[in-house]
Input
Amino acid sequence: MFEISGFDTAGVVSLTRLSLAAALKKARELIEDGCWDVQIVDPGGRVYTSFEEQAA
Output
């Protein structure tokens, strides 16, 4: 599972997706909706954050 986390005005957002492609899509959607500090952690512990610039 890929874990997507970030923050919005209500607090912490935490979601999971089965694939990296689905996690990237959801992370970009969260950023477009105003979330910040969005990151993806893959099953091996690698953290992805570079997609934030792509969504901006």
Remarks:
- Residues 4 and 15 are 5 Å apart (CA to CA).
